[in-house]
Amino acid sequence: MVKIKWLGHACFEIKGKDVTVVTDPHDGASLGLHEPKSEADIVLVSHTHFDHAKGVELVMKKGTIVFKERSGEWEEKGVKIKGVFTYHDESRGRERGGNVVYVFEVDGVRFCHLGDLGHILTSDQVEQIGDVDVLFVPVGGTYTIDAEGATKIVEMLKPKIVIPMHYRIGGISLPISDVEPFLEGKENVEKVSSREYEVTKETLPEKTKIVVLTL
Q1: Domains, the chain
Q2: Would you say the pTM of this structure is higher than 0.90?
């Protein structure tokens, strides 16, 4: 069983039997959120903007390994990781730079964290990402893909579970949309009154399910 905990914005704790992975840790205060708290074995940073990297030290412990904007394939602490280089905007990085999409496997469940993806994926990028069980997708627009773009990405990657991120919630002052435009017209949506959600390879749904977590 893998426990997913939303720590706000694009920061998640993915905790397996023997390893904990944390993605894109913010520092809390800069966004109007609580500080993320974790003891990660591995921290994956898609890019070094403040709202995705300023809180790295808050989620570390002795022996934590941090990967920032790393492309390629490797294995660390028993976790297979792939970094796929993309862009933070639709102008091949000229506006906001690069962004690394991370694909990693914990206890047989294959996760994909899109970071601050700012464009529709190419067919080559989709092929590099491969099969996805759980997709963390930004939906707020302005700095990332918006609801329409996120919907296209979901259709391209065909994940089992979609967890929207990087949207406006109470406390966040960024000029981004809330999650509702992304959910509009969607089927199989579950709004969870918790920041936590558990998944196993055996219980993944056959039809794509959208899971909205609550801080």
Answers
A1: 2-212 (3.60.15.10)
A2: yes
